[in-house]
Recover the amino acids of this structure.
């Protein structure tokens, strides 16, 4: 029997605001537990929430980037449920009237074509706190409310993805756009960006959707792919055994590579949503929306196209360089110092990306400044050092963060172009290689390369190859 899988994602993205969604508490990550809290985000009686203007602006920005209709009037609602990490007993979210409706995102397919994934809605809500169960007391759990009340947007896709790979590609693209917009840091280790996957299967040809399960809190691209693949296989096996899929919420255990049932799935009506009486409807004027539209930055695809057009680099280079906004910024800073787009692209794509990957850091933590990288390429082009020595200088720059000129000076790596110094070395090489000199003179020109090699060896690679060639030719003629 042939099955197809139907996948939809709900992406939760933490907004990159300094303060929380409805109070002035800091959103800083990694502070001592329960240090960024106040009566509002803890839900103390009588405390009143106030909407964070910057958070709304970021949500509108995201909506515009995904082609959503920004709603002039949206409503904050209370989503009621008990959980130990939610002291209020409800989460402020948006339900019937979200801020953004509709939209879409095109993802690249392996075939080179793109596929359009629809976006159903983007709504605003607040985050919950965090439970920790592993402080060394098997019988105790700890709760940190610092994250409670941090602004989120939830981006809900249509059930348009058909493979785990498509889902991961979509998630990757969503992250790229949010980071480019500056509305989310996209740091998945810190929980900035999480996604839940709704998965169902049906026989190929069926038009009715099967019962779906929801997989919670997938926080890496790999986890999304593995968890969905696992769930598809689990559902197919169950159906083949004649079982009925039940609607439930599952928790993915990435280390174990399997999922476990968290609870039977609740429906929206279980939450008893109602408009939050402490918050007025959110009114967004056309002027406000259009003002934000004007501030939208250039996104990755447009940037890549511009790199190809303006810098004349191959499409592949442009795609790699624009995959992360900070990398694209780094590249353009290099170009501003030394306008040699392809050479700089080569250094970044080979040497720099390899080192960053080995160390597991991103470009913002790189010790080589764009100015220094551009200077290195300039020094090679000017014949001050050879390309080969350039690689050694690069290694040193990567470890120490020092300027290339300083490294070349202290290590004495400058190419020897001083002819009198080279003259003496060449004389010595010719007298110790009489046989090869005679071969050359009798017409075996290939020996020339050998002689150049000997001179380079004597100078430990620091002779200017161009000068050596000239001098050697003169002496042998
Ligand atoms: Zn607070
Ligand atoms: Mn949510």
């Amino acid at each position: 029997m042939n099955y197809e899988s139907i996948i939809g994602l709900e992406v939760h993205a933490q907004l990159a605001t300094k303060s929380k969604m409805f109070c002035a508490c800091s959103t800083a990550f990694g502070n001592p537990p329960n240090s960024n809290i106040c009566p509002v985000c803890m839900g103390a009686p009588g405390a009143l929430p106030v909407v964070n203007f910057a958070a709304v602006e970021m949500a509108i920005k995201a909506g515009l980037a995904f082609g959503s209709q920004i709603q002039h009037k949206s409503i904050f609602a209370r989503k009621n449920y008990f959980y130990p990490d939610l002291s209020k007993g409800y989460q402020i979210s948006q339900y019937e009237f979200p801020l953004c409706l509709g939209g879409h995102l095109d993802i690249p397919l392996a075939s080179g074509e793109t596929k359009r994934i629809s976006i159903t809605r983007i709504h605003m809500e607040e985050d919950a706190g965090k439970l920790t169960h592993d402080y060394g007391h098997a019988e105790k759990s700890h709760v940190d409310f610092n994250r409670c009340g941090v602004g989120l947007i939830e981006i809900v896709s249509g059930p348009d993805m058909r493979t785990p790979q498509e889902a991961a590609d979509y998630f990757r693209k969503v992250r790229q756009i949010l980071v480019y917009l500056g509305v989310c840091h996209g740091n998945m280790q810190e929980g900035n960006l999480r996604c839940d996957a709704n998965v169902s299967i049906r026989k190929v040809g069926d038009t009715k959707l099967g019962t779906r399960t929801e997989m919670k809190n997938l926080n890496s691209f790999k986890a999304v792919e593995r968890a969905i693949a696992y769930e598809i296989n689990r559902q197919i096996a169950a159906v083949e055994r004649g079982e009925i899929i039940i609607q439930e919420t599952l928790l993915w255990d990435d280390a174990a590579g399997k999922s476990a049932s968290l609870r039977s799935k609740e429906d929206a009506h279980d939450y008893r949503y109602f408009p939050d009486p402490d918050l007025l409807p959110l009114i967004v004027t056309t002027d406000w929306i259009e003002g934000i539209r004007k501030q939208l930055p250039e996104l990755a695809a447009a940037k890549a196209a511009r790199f190809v057009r303006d810098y004349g680099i191959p499409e592949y280079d442009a795609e790699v360089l624009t995959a992360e906004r900070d990398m694209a910024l780094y590249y353009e800073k290099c170009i501003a110092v030394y306008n040699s787009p392809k050479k700089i692209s080569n250094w970044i794509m080979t040497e720099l990306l390899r080192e960053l990957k080995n160390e597991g850091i991103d470009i913002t933590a790189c010790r080589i400044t764009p100015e220094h990288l551009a200077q290195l390429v300039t020094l090679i082009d000017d014949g001050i050092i050879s390309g080969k020595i350039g690689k050694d200088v690069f290694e040193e720059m990567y470890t120490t963060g020092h300027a290339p000129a300083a490294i070349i000076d202290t290590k004495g790596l400058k190419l020897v172009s001083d002819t009198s110094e080279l003259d003496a070395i060449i004389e010595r090489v010719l007298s110790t290689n009489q046989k090869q000199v005679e071969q050359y003179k009798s017409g075996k020109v290939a020996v020339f390369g050998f002689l150049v090699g000997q001179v380079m060896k004597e100078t430990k690679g620091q002779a200017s190859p161009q000068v050596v060639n000239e001098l050697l030719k003169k002496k042998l003629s």
Notes: Residues 419-476 form a domain with the Arc Repressor Mutant, subunit A fold (CATH 1.10.10.410). The longest helix spans residues 221-240. The pocket of manganese (II) ion (ligand 2) is lined by residues 12, 125, 154 (CB under 6 Å). The radius of gyration is 30 Å.
